[in-house]
Design goal:
Layout (H helix, E strand, L loop, with lengths): L2 H31 L2 E5 L2 E3 L2 E12 L3 E3 L7 E4 L6 E2 L4 E5 L1 H84 L5 H6 L2 H47 L6 H26 L3 E3 L4 E6 L13 E5 L4 E7 L10 E7 L5 E13 L5 E6 L10 E9 L3 E6 L4 E3 L2 E12 L2 E10 L1 E5 L3 E5 L8 E6 L8 E8 L3
Parallel strand pairs: 1-23
Antiparallel strand pairs: 1-22, 2-16, 3-11, 3-15, 4-10, 5-7, 6-9, 7-8, 9-10, 11-14, 12-13, 12-15, 13-14, 16-21, 17-18, 18-19, 18-22, 19-23, 20-21
Helix pairs in contact: 2-4, 2-5
Amino acid sequence: MSKSKKYAVIGFGIFLGFMAVCTVIAKGIYRSRLPKVTTQAPYSGSFSHEIKVDGVVKQEQEYGIFVESGLRVSTVVVRNGAYFEEGEPLFQVCIDDLQEIIDEKELEINQLRSIRKESVQTENDRKQKQQTAAARAREDYDNAAKEADARIEACTQALEAAKQELSLYEEYLEDFQADGNVSGEDVEGGDSTQQYNLQEKRLKLQQNVKSCNQELENAKRQKDTILQAASRAIEDAASEGSISSSAYESTDLEIAHKEKKLLKLKELKEAEGWVYSESAGRVIECRIAVGKRTQDEAGILYALDDGEKVIQAVFKGGIGLELNEELSLKANQEGGTRINTSVAVAYLEKLENGDTLAEMSGEGLDINIGQTVEVSCRWQTENYAACIPSLCIHDEEGADYVYVAEEREGILGTEWKVRKVFVTILDQTDMMTAVESAEISGDTKIVVTSTDDLMNGNVVRLVGDRAGS
């Protein structure tokens, strides 16, 4: 090889070496500027959840103290949680205001009594008029019956007279024919003038009998019509509208009800407006306030001293609590000591908003009615196929997603790129989250941490990778 070629080969080698050094330096600079990420593969597992809520100690049975609504309260001597003995004063109403209400009640009762008295007088007057109208209607009925009977009697007599007259005339014709004054042929077809006169009179007498008989029938029909109308007049007079006894009974009941309320108000006035306890207990809720008026509800809710205690707690959502399940209970006691025990669920109720009301017995525990305690429950979820750290989850306009790292070929060779994958969250704690996605498998590299903010398609530098546990 000539000397010039030898120098050329050496120079080319030096160039290649220089280029290799430059490439290594360029890759190092490029990689040093890439975001550094750590990844983790998803793993299968279940979560242990613990929910803590505030419970309230209550009495299993509560009682109420009631007074007439609308009374102005002047003094309240008890508050929520206060204990009281039997016969102790609880609150007082304004005496002047009470007297005004008593006067109004008495006025209302007197007005009702006056209205009832007027109604009774009106009803008595109406009954008197009704009786008079009924008596007149019966008198009209009797008079109409007498007149109708008299007409029938007259028509009957006229009919009998007409029949008698016709009978006598027919006897006369028979006697006249027998004496020979008129032959049979004359009567039936003899002398036309004599025959016509005899037959004409006979026909008139027969027609008179028919007319009298028709008058008698008409009189009988008229009697039925007249008596029917008179009978209806009697019924109408007897059935004229009246105030029913139920109307009086309703007014009497209203008066009795108002008198009963008035008696309670007067008894309250005699007690100078003070309302006293009927038994010893502890105030659960005081619903009255000075200057306000009483409502149509219990003014004070209280519990008996020896009543059974229960603990009520509301858990958000439909958690899987069951009867007799043990829950943890923590409560502070007087003197600074603290209760840390467990209680069993004795009652469960699904509320309208989807929450769950749990009730536990507080018997045997040194806790007070109205006290707030801490109730907690723990349960294990089902086994999920893909669990990842919660810090892997990102949010984009309400949609949840993660970044996964994948190997891709680039200008400088094989490199890692991140891709955005949307997921559905199945369950979650502060540390871990169970997700579901068709693009995530057991060997998917989920980005856990990054030194820079990432975007879909960013090239990254993988500095840590661990399998799910």
